[in-house]
Amino acid sequence: MKRLPMRKIREALRLRADGLSGRRVAQSLSMARATISEYFRRADLAGLSWPLPDDLSDRDLEHRLYPPQPSASARQVPQPDWAYMHTELRRKGVTLALLWQEYREVHPGGYGYSQYCSRYSEWEGKLTPVMRQRHPAGERLFVDYAGQTVDVICPETGEVRVTPKACFQHDAQIFVAALGASNYTYVEASWTQSLPDWISSHVRAFAFFGGVPAMIVSDNLKSAVIKACFHDPAINRTYGDMAAHYDTAVVPARPRKPQDKAKVETAVQLAERWILARLRNQTFFGLDELNAAIRPLRDQLNAKVTRHLGASRRALFEDLDKPALRPLRAEPYVYAEWKQRRAGIDYHIDVDRHYYSVPHQLIKQPLWVRITARTVEVFHKGQRVASHARTSGNRQHSTVREHMPSNHRHRADWTPESIRRQAARIGPNVETYVDVVMRRRKHPEQAYRSCMGVLKLARGFGPDRLDAACERALEINSYTYQSLHSILKNGLDRTPRRRTTPSRQHAFACACRVIDEPAITHPNIRGADYFH
């Protein structure tokens, strides 16, 4: 029974001394008659009557009306092992009721359940104080994975599978996110806890909430934190990139300090009890099927009115968190993985077994590579220095011409097609001549330098003279740079021929027939026409 102020008890004793009955005293003081009767009984047992002694204080009056009860030690009640209890309560599924039952089995005359819980609370209060955390609306989103997983069965083999394309022993992970002020909870299943699934779950959670909090409080899993540290944790760059896209911040919980994310720990517990426990007897053949079963149970959890708040999580979300959340970006975050690379001496970097060029000035320099499903972007000191379309890992090279040194850029232009095009611009005989020269080699690349030398002769002697010289060289089956230069130097391209000569096509056909048996060529062998 709740004790009345001592001044009311004094007034009750005074009224009784004035001759009022217990009923009239109760009516006068607006109290129950049974309460007044109890106080009168205690006063009579203590030998108190009106007027009370002048030196009797309220504390002394209360002490005489309510004398102290014998202590527990005097009654010799066996004391539980509070430290053991405190440790056991950290185990999953262990409750105070269970520990009390175990205690009473050993000590049948021990504390009742209410006294047992009350005394444990008193003992626990002497431990290290816990800071009471306040969560302003829209400020924090707590994220984590549940410890419990859900099996997804392959319909073909009947085995638990990890991805839609693989059938072997594994299970689906449960991602949980809870807002700080309203406890509004998002739950979904994903195949893994890897970085792509971690980021995708965040994107879908933001869409579910319809906004973005000021900060995200995460656990220290590798997808979120590369290096856990109390003072300066290293955030995964892709995770930080996603946070920057949505204009929010990542604040990891301290290592081995679950109290920093108590909100999501509670949300995980509720998800296991109210969602996963209800799905324990169901069989799922795909991730979409599992998430379809989770959604209505998640909505029921958010719609359930909590006893300690008197409102549902959804109602609190609508009143508190939703108006305070930052707006979503028009475009959702596109997953991009960041990797560190160093350019080799060939000014290319390796990304998933394909090689992408960077400016040659960045050879041996540390670079950051941003990899999306379609693009590969390279950054140096925060500046983008290269961008490529992403290609599958085929051990090939993607090279931008501007990334090459000037001498490499010139050599890169040497292809059979480009050489033929340059020769055709000079003259038809030059085009035929370089084509024959390349065909006479086992590999066209072996004739590149010779052909480029032939084309350069047009600068000193002019395109018309070079075309005439090539025509003459085709007639005499002379296919070296030295012989062609000799024809031009000695002016044989200007000397009229006295006999009919085969056509260029005929010379080309003859040259192709003798590819395996090349003619003997030498600067001193000028042919019969030289002497006419």
Written overview of the protein:
With 532 residues, this protein is an alpha+beta fold. The protein has 5 domains: 6-65, Orthogonal Bundle (Arc Repressor Mutant, subunit A), CATH 1.10.10; 79-124, no CATH class; 140-324, 2-Layer Sandwich (Nucleotidyltransferase, domain 5); 337-409, no CATH class; 413-531, no CATH class. The chain has helices at residues 6-17, 22-29, 33-46, 58-65, 72-75, 82-88, 96-106, 113-124, 195-209, 237-245, 262-276, 287-303, 313-324, 406-412, 416-426, 428-439, 448-461, 463-475, 481-489, 504-513; strands at residues 140-145, 173-179, 185-190, 215-217, 225-227, 234-235, 249-250, 337-342, 348-351, 354-357, 366-371, 375-380, 383-389, 397-398. Strands 3-2-1-4-7 form a 5-stranded mixed β-sheet, sandwiched between helices. The protein starts with 5 loop residues before the first helix and ends in a 19-residue tail after the last helix.
